[in-house]
Amino acid sequence: MALSQRARQLAVPLAALVFSVAVTAVALVLVLAPPKNSGAPAVGGPFSLVSQEGKPVTERDFAGRPYLVFFGFTHCPDVCPTTLFQMSEMLGKMGEKGRDLRALFITVDPERDTPEVLKDYLSSFDDRIIGLTGDQASVEAAIRSFRGFARKVPGQDGDYTMEHTSFVYLMGADGSFLGTVNMTRPPEETAKDVLAKL
């Protein structure tokens, strides 16, 4: 039986919506799921960077305690400072149970984000948030390790911005990926959710 004209009008946008949801779901699986038989964790792994204090840092420096990972850059106009503020608020609500939790702010813009720049930028946020940078190859390796992405977008007069992964990753004390953290909720709720996963 042929579809009525009204049914046909509804079918096209509905099919487009279903396709869009399916594409988004596949993209998330590709980002957060490990390759088959890779033996690697879905998210996370070795990295070798430089702290805001100018000292070499690897994932081994955080072994034995949980940590958050957020990729961003200091010239970010809104998402990065907002997320770092929300993260600071959440850390402030965690009390004694969350005292060992650290947060790594890994720049996707090492060209501009030197250790000194990161240290100054992060002084406005909770002191448990640690800035990490490095040479371009090391930063790109860290991004790949967390199955993220970053891309330079040219602007006017030689300026540029960065498109990048905006997940906040929660890593366990053993380095395992525990999930992503939704920072848009009230900080008390976010803190409770994170503590429940540790």
Give the structural class. alpha+beta
β-sheet strand percentage: 15-25%
Which segments are poorly predicted (pLDDT under 50) over 5 or more consecutive residues? 1-38
Span between termini: 56 Å
Q: What is the ordering of alpha helices and beta strands?
A: HEEEHEHEHEEEEH
The coarse overall form would be globular
What is the count of helical runs? Answer: 5
Radius of gyration: 20 Å
Q: Averaged pLDDT, please?
A: 84
Number of strands: 9
Largest sheet: 7 strands, mixed
Order of adjacent strands in the largest pleated sheet: 2-1-5-4-3-8-9
Instruction: State the helical fraction.
Output: 25-40%
Plain-language structure description:
Residues 1-38 have low confidence and may be disordered. The protein has helices at residues 5-32, 79-92, 115-122, 136-145, 187-197; strands spanning 48-51, 56-58, 67-72, 102-107, 129-133, 150-154, 160-164, 168-171, 177-180. Strands 2-1-5-4-3-8-9 form a seven-stranded mixed β-sheet. A two-stranded antiparallel ribbon has the order 6-7. It is globular, with a radius of gyration of 20 Å. The protein starts with a helix and ends with a helix. By secondary structure, the protein is of the alpha+beta class. Helix content is 36%, strand content 21%.
